[in-house]
């Protein structure tokens, strides 16, 4: 069967075939045929945003939380599409499956310095997994299929599809569209038997083994398989930075996040382990800074990765296993039967549990609860009041970096951060996308005042569409990380470090959201409790001591002798 449609109608039909729930975007004249077709597609909810960048963050958050592709539509060619760049670069760094669609200049006007002309194909290629420009109307469904297939295949990532005006307006005969199962691989590789056997013996013979669980465990929700292996080994599990929710907080073998920005207990385990099982992690920048300062140089590394080019890329491995991380974890657990555990490893884990317990107790007991509000006191207040099912999104910046391992993540896919891109202005918009994916869970977004100032216009998006998240603005009136560097390495010669902002609680009220102000630490918990129940998007403006600054990347300034 065939049906005549415009390119815009065909694009929307292809989105429907992919079971698309939400399209985030900003309307524009270049894609009017597509928007008109969305009008007749009630199964797809269009979320109109104020900036294509923040719309991309929403699609990114939705993708990470749902496991499906998040879709963003830049309605205007030129400036509408250039606004996508930061969001797509963020999604690429996080390996997040975002399908970005942008209007493009009519093909007859290309290379004529036409209105809003820019080479979108070249511009977006470096920040995507792949970018296409549709050459004709009849190929629109094919390229939408290819966009989803590429975005969702390992290693996942964002893609860009440029749809020229004449391609969307053109008419063609289209056959009934294929279902995704017809063109998408749903299988995952398992580890080879000999590699699994060697790795199992290496783990069992280890005196001080540790498992590093990364995104390959988190995004597959493979925590049960990872923990089954850890329990069989009685081996501590650390998580890579930004993936502190890869395994539940409450499990006794969970050490928390490791690395330069992780906690002392988890970081020590990786520095002293004799065998490291890197389970679905690249051992990349935020985990190691690419140095043996953060990982034992003498350790034997077993690396399990779905992306073969990641194996042994930064550190040489004893055994590299190209496989799906949860699948390999279960293979390893099964291979352990009949092998005898050494007493040294039991002692290693016993010491770890004691240290972990002491660390958590110290974290609470040493929290500063006096005025003005200190980060440690704020994080304790949040730990005490947030429900266990909460999903938490974070920005970059010094306060959010301190918060990353200070929160407790009780279930997988509860932590959403900029990861290696280190983007400020991500958290609030990401939280809106996460809430669309998991509407029954509370979503709390932590931001600094600078980052929230970048994105607060999306409060109207949240209000208009009833996306009820809670945003905690940690307001220290400065760009905290940079101000800390100026203080510590440039003799306090501050320039551009201070931020002036209106009262965010009042701004929220003007948008139709609920606003709260927490000038003292004791105001925080009641505000959170009320915000979670208020039935509106909510913003809590928390005054944080502007002098509570911390330099995270001290290594960046070694050349200054600091």
In terms of topology, how is this protein built?
Blueprint: E1 2-6, H1 7-17, E2 22-26, H2 32-39, E3 45-48, H3 52-66, E4 70-74, H4 79-82, H5 85-93, E5 98-104, H6 120-124, E6 130-133, H7 140-152, E7 159-164, H8 165-169, E8 171-175, H9 193-205, E9 209-213, H10 215-218, H11 223-233, E10 237-239, E11 254-257, H12 264-272, E12 275-279, H13 285-288, E13 300-305, E14 319-322, H14 325-335, H15 343-365, H16 375-385, E15 391-394, H17 398-404, E16 415-416, H18 427-437, E17 443-448, H19 449-455, H20 459-465, E18 470-475, H21 480-489, H22 504-511, E19 514-518, H23 524-533, E20 538-543
Parallel strand pairs: 2-3, 2-4, 4-5, 5-7, 6-7, 9-10, 9-12, 10-11, 12-13, 13-14, 15-16, 15-17, 17-18, 18-20, 19-20
Antiparallel strand pairs: 1-8
């Amino acid at each position: 069967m065939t049906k005549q449609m415009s390119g815009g109608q065909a694009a929307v039909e292809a989105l429907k075939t992919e079971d698309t729930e939400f399209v985030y975007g900003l309307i524009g004249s270049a894609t009017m045929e597509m928007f008109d077709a969305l009008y007749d597609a009630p199964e797809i909810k269009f979320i109109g945003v104020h900036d294509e960048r923040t719309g991309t963050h929403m699609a990114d958050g939705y993708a990470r939380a749902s496991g499906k592709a998040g879709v963003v539509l830049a309605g205007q060619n030129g400036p509408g599409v250039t606004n996508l760049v930061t969001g797509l670069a963020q999604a690429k760094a996080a390996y997040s499956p975002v399908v970005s669609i942008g209007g493009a200049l009519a093909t007859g006007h290309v290379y004529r310095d036409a209105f809003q002309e820019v080479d979108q194909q070249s511009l977006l290629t470096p920040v995507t997994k792949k970018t296409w420009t549709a050459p004709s109307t009849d190929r629109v469904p094919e390229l939408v299929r290819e966009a989803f297939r590429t975005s969702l295949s390992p290693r996942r990532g964002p893609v860009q599809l440029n749809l020229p005006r004449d391609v969307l307006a053109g008419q063609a005969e289209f056959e009934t569209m294929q279902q995704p199962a017809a063109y998408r691989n749903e299988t995952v590789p398992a580890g080879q038997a000999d590699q699994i056997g060697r790795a199992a013996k290496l783990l069992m013979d280890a005196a001080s083994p540790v498992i590093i669980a990364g995104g390959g465990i988190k995004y597959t929700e493979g925590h049960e398989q990872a923990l089954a292996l850890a329990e069989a080994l009685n081996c501590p599990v650390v998580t890579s930075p930004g993936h502190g929710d890869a395994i539940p907080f409450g499990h006794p073998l969970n050490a928390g996040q490791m690395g330069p920005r992780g906690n002392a207990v988890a970081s020590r385990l990786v520095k002293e382990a004799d065998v490291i099982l890197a389970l679905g992690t690249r051992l990349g920048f935020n985990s190691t800074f690419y140095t043996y300062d953060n990982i034992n140089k003498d350790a034997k590394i077993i690396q399990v990765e779905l992306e073969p080019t990641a194996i042994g890329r930064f550190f040489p491995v004893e055994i590299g296993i190209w496989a799906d991380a949860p699948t390999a974890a279960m293979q390893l657990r099964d291979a352990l039967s009949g092998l005898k555990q050494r007493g040294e490893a039991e002692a290693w884990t016993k010491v770890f549990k004691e240290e972990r317990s002491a660390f958590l107790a110290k974290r609470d007991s040493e929290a500063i609860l006096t005025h003005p509000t200190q980060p440690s006191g704020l994080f304790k207040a949040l730990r005490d009041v947030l429900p266990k099912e909460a999903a938490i999104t974070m920005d970059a910046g010094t306060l959010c970096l301190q918060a990353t391992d200070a929160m407790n993540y009780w279930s997988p896919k509860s932590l959403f951060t900029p990861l290696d891109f280190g983007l400020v202005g991500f958290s609030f918009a990401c939280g809106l996308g996460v809430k669309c994916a998991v509407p029954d869970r509370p979503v709390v977004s932590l931001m600094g005042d600078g980052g929230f100032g970048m994105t607060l216009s999306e409060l109207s998006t949240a209000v208009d569409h009833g996306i009820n998240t809670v945003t905690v603005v940690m307001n220290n009136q400065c760009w905290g990380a940079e101000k800390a560097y100026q203080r510590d390495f440039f003799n306090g010669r501050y320039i551009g470090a201070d931020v002036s902002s209106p009262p965010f609680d009042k701004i929220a009220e003007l948008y139709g959201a609920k606003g709260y102000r927490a000038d003292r630490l004791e105001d925080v918990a009641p505000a959170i409790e009320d915000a979670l129940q208020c039935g509106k998007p909510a913003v809590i403006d928390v005054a944080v001591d502007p002098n509570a600054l911390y330099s995270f990347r001290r290594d960046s300034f070694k050349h200054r002798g600091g």
